[in-house]
Each structure stands twice: as C-alpha cells, then as structure tokens.
Design brief:
Elements lengths: L22 H17 L7 E5 L2 E5 L3 E3 L6 E3 L6 E4 L5 E4 L2 H4 L3 E8 L9 E5 L6 E4 L7 E14 L17 E13 L2
Parallel strand pairs: 5-11
Antiparallel strand pairs: 1-2, 1-6, 3-4, 3-11, 6-9, 7-8, 7-10, 10-11
Length: 186
C-alpha cells in the first residue's frame, strides 16, 4: 500500500493544484490550530510498531522526566499485535526518543513455542529513528518487543556508587518503556 502526501506529485508526476483554499484562510486556520495545540500540556512520546500488515501507536507503560526523579506509570497501556511466524516488526521512534540513548529488547519463540533468549539492540543519540526486529528463523515468531529510552541518571548501588558494566561504563536508568506483545494470527 502506498501512502502519498497531498503535497507530493500525483502518480503521473504532475503537481495537482489545490482548489478552494485561499492562502490567508489556510494561514489563519494553521495559526488557530497552533494556538489551540499550544495551550495543552504535551504528553509523552508515542512509538509506532508495524508487523504483518498492521500498525499501532504505542504510549509508554512508564515515562519519567529526564533525570528520572518523577515517573508516571500506566498499567492500562497494554498493546498486542497479531503476527505470523517469520514476520518482522518495524519500530519507529520520534526524534524525542531517537536523539537520546535508546534500545530495543526482542524475544521470539521457536516453532515449538519455546521462548528464545532476549536479543538487545542499543542506539546512541541520533543514530537511528527506526529498527526492524527479525525473528531468528523463518519458523520463529516474535513474542515481545520492548523499546526503552535512557534518562540522564545512572544506576547506583546502596552506597551511592555508580553501577558499571563489564567494560567499566556507568549504567543509565531507563526513562521510558514501550512494551508490545505479539499474538499468533489465525
């Protein structure tokens, strides 16, 4: 399925003229929409996940301020996407997430339904706005995809010392979590 922006050329390659909208009216309408949109508080970012012909917008299960001092948890945000064996999932994150460290955890099941080890892909700030999660084999099925956005805080032990990985790097604390489960498509 092709999606075409109304501003792009038509399929024959010619620009279609816009009819019935005067620039002054359009500018006034855009200003009013901006003014109304600017009055409300901006919510947490949403991600998009597409698999096997369906796409969903996903709100975070948990989302914190950048310093991870105040968090909102919403256990009602449960998402499931139908899929079949061998089908990948395309994950798109907005710039608000992509311009920070973020990662994707992916778990699949083999043909017998046995869960396979979780695979993780990490992205540095600005490195990517999208990722494709692939099942490890044509007969494997995705079980869960979880996007995590890192905050500006680092994990510490009980004495307040930074927790470091095997290479000595301090471990950032997760700011946002967007989990999506996959269900067998019938």
């Amino acid at each position: 399925m092709a999606v075409r922006d109304a501003r792009s050329p038509d399929p024959a390659g010619e620009r279609r003229p816009r009819r019935g909208v005067k620039p002054a009216v359009l500018a006034g309408t855009a200003g009013a929409v901006f003014a109304v949109a600017g009055c409300g508080e901006v919510g947490p970012p949403e991600i998009t996940i597409y698999s096997d012909g369906e796409a969903i917008q996903v709100e975070p299960f948990t989302y914190c301020d950048v310093e991870v001092t105040e968090c909102d948890n919403d256990e009602t945000h449960e998402y499931a996407l139908p899929t079949r064996p061998g089908q990948p999932a395309q994950i798109s994150v907005p710039g608000e997430v992509a311009e920070t460290p973020w990662l994707v955890n992916v778990q699949a099941a083999d043909a017998d339904g046995t869960p396979l080890p979780v695979q993780q892909e990490y992205f540095s700030p600005g490195e990517a706005h999208a990722f494709t999660a692939e099942p490890p084999s044509p007969d494997a099925t995705l079980l869960i995809v979880e996007v995590q956005q890192m905050g500006a805080a680092f994990a510490a032990d009980q004495e307040g010392e930074p927790i470091r990985d095997e290479e000595g790097a301090m471990q950032p604390v997760t700011r946002g979590i967007w989990p999506v489960a996959f269900e067998a498509r019938s």
